[in-house]
Amino acid sequence: MGHRIALHPDLAQWVVSPGGALFCARVRQHLANGGKLNHRIGLRMTDRERADLIDLFGDAVSATGIRLARADTVLRDSRHTLPLRMLIIGAGGPIRTKRGQARYRAFLKRERLRRERAETLAAIADVSELAAEYELLASMPDDNRRVPPMGSRAATPHWDTHCAALRAAAEWYRTASRDWKCSERELAALALGGTKTWTTASRAAFSHLVGIPFTEAVHTSDTGLRMTGPAEWHRQGMVADLNLAEPFIELPGRAVTRNGRFDLQAHGVFLVENQETFEAVASRTSVPRKWLCIWTGGFASHALAHFLDMRVPESLPIAAWGDLDPPGIDIILDLSAKSGRSIQPIAMEAELYRRGRKLVEEPAELAKWLKEAQKQAANVPSQFKDLVAAMIEHGGLRCEQEGLHEQVLPHLSRWLAELKPL
Hints:
alpha/beta, 6-stranded mixed beta sheet, flat
């Protein structure tokens, strides 16, 4: 299976002729699409191609096509005594029909699932704490549905998440039996094939399996928050005076949120997406005298979201300045959703976008950003609608905040002073 049929030398020479190559390619596609050999197919042929077809199939060939049933009969009755399908297979190998391809994909999917089940079962087989999970997984029907078994403590509907959580839980129980507590990345390296493979969903499923919150089950590293402005962090005495930070200070996000006292004397919190712009705000404007300025670094960490939720009073406004493009908008909306706080955009207006210098990108990239903007137009909050409309008007062109420093930095303090808490 998978090998070509050896054609007679005369036929082997014919299938590479102009007419033979055209015919074989057209009929192969016809059969792959589920067509039969009792149809007439149309062919746009040159005189040379038509002459080649007449040489082999005679009166089966017309000026605009060929009758396949007649061609099959002619070929069977010739000295080659070969069915037409075998000629096509001999010319180009086995024919994969759409139905056959679907069956093949289903076969591969089932085999992959079988392998994943077997590997996961082997990974948890020696862990008594996961015996019930082993039984649930082992009793699943032999099908190709990538879903976890009903009743699993992992409590996730996603197969990949389920398997990752089981493997991590098994390794966690083994190391715990040796009185060793893994770090987050150490456990991922041991159980998940890489230190950066954790997801929010797999952390939650793992915690369900071991019955302990993730941050208690493993050693987790903190996330630094770069900030400057009128605030102090006290923990058995002053740890940091952010007023003195030049151009900023980096504090451990979870620690500054959970431990000690954070005295925030600011008029509000100002979030900046890109580092160069953050440092420009810190060193070239008066904003840090009255506002706590924080670098988000693109899509913000959970540590920053938790900080905004726990350390920033509801009475203070939170503002953000990002790139004037679809990701810049998504970054702000994502952080707002994570923190549960309203965030007001600054310097992200349609008029600034129109005046700003746009990125030079390939047509395919522009098409991608235009599509993203068109998707955003249907559901972004009102404060972004004019900006999104301008991006669509300009075909998806993007404008980075660094190119707007001259137009924004001199006015930033005044614009922020005009904000009120939402």
